[in-house]
């Protein structure tokens, strides 16, 4: 039962992240929503890898690798948003600047 709760929580995090990615205009909020999607997927994969008699090390290795890649991709994305904000004066894309 615990693994089902973890898998459903991961699915809920992915859903919230997709909503935030679609509904938000500010680029930093979109980066946070994308990270929320990744965290939900990591939780779901961890719950899926724990099913059965023993623990499977492959999903655990994929989760650890994914965390490292997500951290570096987030740092790159935040750097690009900072460069966009310095050049244009706003952290929103030009065609979406009027929306909230």
From TrEMBL:
It is a multi-pass membrane protein. Gene3D superfamilies: 1.10.287.3510. It comes from the Bacteria. It is found in: Cell membrane. The chain crosses the membrane at residues 6-25, 32-50, 62-85. GO terms for cellular component: plasma membrane. Keywords: Cell membrane, Membrane, Transmembrane, Transmembrane helix. Belongs to the CPA3 antiporters (TC 2.A.63) subunit C family. PANTHER family: ANTIPORTER SUBUNIT MNHC2-RELATED. This is Na+/H+ antiporter subunit C. It comes from Roseinatronobacter bogoriensis subsp. barguzinensis.
């Amino acid at each position: 039962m615990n693994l089902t709760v973890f898998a459903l929580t991961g699915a809920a995090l992915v859903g919230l992240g997709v909503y935030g990615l679609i509904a938000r205009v500010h680029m930093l909020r979109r980066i946070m929503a994308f990270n929320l999607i990744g965290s939900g997927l990591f939780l779901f994969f961890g719950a899926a890898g724990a099913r059965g008699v023993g623990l499977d090390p492959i999903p655990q290795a994929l989760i650890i690798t994914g965390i490292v890649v997500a951290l570096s991709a987030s740092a790159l994305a935040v750097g690009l948003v900072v460069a966009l904000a310095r050049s244009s004066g706003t952290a929103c894309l030009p065609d979406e600047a009027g929306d909230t």
